[in-house]
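Quick one:
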Amino acid sequence: MKKRNFSAEFKRESAQLVVDQKYTVADAAKAMDVGLSTMTRWV
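Output:
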């Protein structure tokens, strides 16, 4: 599997789902199609 690179803007927008829009980390990860551990690092 190839490692995916995400822009800083994508990471910021993904983290804002949790911080600003009250998504759970798991729901935000699913919505943005990234792994749970990846999303956890960004938040």
